[in-house]
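[SOLVED] Need 3D model of a two-part complex

Original post:
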Amino acid sequence: MSPAINFELRRRTFIAGTAVAAVTVGMSRKAAAQTAAPVGAESTTVFLTVNGEGRELTVDNRTTLLDALREHLQLTGTKKGCDHGQCGACTCTVNGTRVNSCLSLAVMHDGDEVETIEGIGAPDAMDPMQTAFVENDGFQCGYCTPGQIQSARAVLDEIRAGIPSHVTDDLTAEITITDAEIRERMSGNICRCGAYANILAAITQVAEDQA
Amino acid sequence: MSVHRPTPHDSARLHVTGAARYVDDIPTPAGCLHLAFGQSTIAHGTITAMDLTAVRASEGVIAVLTANDLPHANDVSPSIHDEPLLATGTVHYVGQPLFAVVATSHTAARKAARLAEVTYDTKPAILTIEEAMAANSRFEEGPRVYTRGDASGAIDASAHVIDGVIDMGGQEHFYLEGQAALALPQDDGDMVVHSSTQHPSEIQHKVADALGLPMHGVKVEVRRMGGGFGGKESQGNALAVACAVAASLTGKPCKMRYDRDDDMVITGKRHDFRISYRAGFDHAGRVQGIEFVHYTRCGWAQDLSLPVADRAMLHADNAYFFENIRIESHRLRTNTQSATAFRGFGGPQGIVGVERVMDQIAHHLGLDPLEVRKVNYYAEMESADGGLSAPRAAAPLPPESILTKKKQVTPYGQEVTDFVLHGLTADLAARCDYEARRVAVAEWNAGSPVLKRGMAITPVKFGISFTLSHLNQAGALVHVYQDGSVALNHGGTEMGQGLYQKVAQVASGVFGIGLEQVRLTATDTSKVPNTSATAASSGSDLNGMAVLAACEALRARMADHLAAVRQGEPADVVFEGGLVRVGADEMTFCAAAKECYEGRVSLSATGFYKTPDISWDRIKGNGRPFYYFAYGAACSEVVIDTLTGEYKVLRTDILHDAGRSLNPALDIGQIEGGFVQGAGWLTTEELVWDDKGRLRTHAPSTYKIPAASDRPKVFNVALFEGDNPEATIHRSKAVGEPPFCLGISVLMALSDAVAACGAAYPALDAPATPERVLKAVMRVRGDA
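Solution:
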């Protein structure tokens, strides 16, 4: 991993940490309730920055980040495919890193920056990756598409940041963006319609445009 | 005119921005309740007691429904009413819904559903083909048999004879969007249902029966599905009916979405098949006589199993003419999920059976399997006259003779008039350099003791039409508004195949306007009634024609009016480029619409279409079940590791016939996707039930669906362009299911690679997982 990205992550975490301080009043009330009930609080108030907007929400501790986004914030662009972290439909980014939001609890992300597909672009103002997916027909039914696009953007970032994958031959050299690298890194996002050829074409197009 | 152009999917911008709404994304009204099913934990038995006290007491639970609480029909079967929504005393498989919990949240409903205490009088479960055959547990009175000539006699008289058995597993649909429904109670007991379904009219019918309403009391709306693949033809009935009944009883909106594991445990899958065969042939591999016995596990309820098993029989010939053939089909009732429609609907299973035979004949004779396939092909279609415009590299035809005529008739009596596989296969073989690469593979294998390569070309001939002939109909409703915008509605549903876009292209062509002026609205049973499922690849064939009829009726009305006002001839009115020309007058389509409105012209029309010239007797196995055939061929090359059985698909080349494609971009997408899904079925996708009848592969963690890294490294897909000889919508061909069968080339390439390991025939079963490939390698080497 390149130092620049490390710094970036830490800086974001730090900023997020200060954001938490802004809602500590709410938190301390919860903490007081916790001491009274030895089993622990069943719900927690968390502060998330979602697509650049601060959102405070009180959720059952067992609520996944995915359900928090879909059910509490009505951001339904992030999809629930398997709810097991196996299909990738729920992929979104937390502090710039892609995660399966169904495998992460909302309460783990107090102070974090979350970006969903809605934050990347809109139908009349699309991100280059979204445009490339349209131009290359990188979908059929569209259900896996938000997750594919989130992963696709992260894949290019990860390669540029020097994070190796299973198919990276030389761990010390700069990683080149190859078909094999993209395929390997996108293999956590299932497209049951089998639009992989077009998905790869879209990602390759963006990688070339950005090169 | 946008027909035949590669325009993107109509929802493209919505899909990539997360703005495309699926059932689970629809904002629900306040107070919406959520449902979950309590499920059977045994495969077969009688319920002796069902204590639901703890379920009812669980937090958030509003109501618990059992079969006794249902006010009207307890039936979600698409066929013979043998599938109750909730079990009535006897349970037939692990996962069968016993009761429905209605609660304030999805989680509360699911948690409560697990608290039931059910005791059973367990009965022996019939799980396997052997058990079902031994117990004569089946649908219909006995096996269905289609025959022509004397197969047994011809085999016995042949120079060479082979026999064998191939097992092929089922397949989980794994539509990325799981089953979901939302019911909204209306005035006077009516119900509106949003359902993720390929068959809105059936949902409407089942909900109406469950509520004791006429069908006009129920409206079903479907904007899109996150994948269907046949799994939403009948399997959404249970959710929609449960939600509607709960909504009716509570007066609240009710929603149900299966958790993924529940979805995989409860719903039906592709039928698994065992096909045993015997074939007699000459020195060139020409088949003299052939016999198949199909055994299929239909699961506990009939669902769509009979037409699935029929279609398997109807594809037992695939692309080959068999003068003497006998096909026997056993539709077995087992204590497992009720197997259902899945892309290809039995066709792929029938085709795998005969492709195995071709492969084994070639192995037996030491011939190139492609040569064996070619000598058995039906004769090529007659050339150039008959309205064919595309140049085709057709093989020279023998003179018209009785023999040629006879060679054009399928075992079920349908004449094959459009056969293009001689030319198509030759074209593909040339494009992918088949002969040279086969030589190269053999040389490479000679020098490679551990890794072995294999290569195969397999063809597909797929029959297009519902075999239940009356389903081959469609309706459409088209409005032209006074501002010149056009709204379309038809009975087809959108599941990613691009049907809406293709149909919009048809409409834009008729009115000579841009696609942005045409809007497809959600499929809605109150707009177009009595629709057939969007299935059997028929979506654009049927609905495209219905929309065309409606648009042409509207255009004629507009032309009549515009011409009459100007003392012109309606036939001279031209709709083109967003403009309407009447003699010297030219106006925008929008102005024309306004003028027609002001001239009091009805600007709303319905359209209807029924497929002509089809008839079918499924008991006799005779008639013309299909309007036409769609064709294609694929060449795949694989490499296997003989130490582990692992393999990779190195390259696949496909040439597929979509007629004069309505939209080449969408059609190529269907072909690539169909291939990937078909290859997945035959390689990595393995369903495993334990000896208690429990499905152990009920999540993508244990059920391996092809990922981006599984796609062939080199993947070339091209359309075999040419008009459909039949008068389909703009001479296109259906493209949903046929390319699924191209995945068979991977199985045959694996067989070829295994065959390079020794003298014996690989006899590879499907799915050809690494374990099966390794076993086959050991068998071929004589190590097993």
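Edit: Chain A touches chain B through 59 residues (CB under 8 Å).
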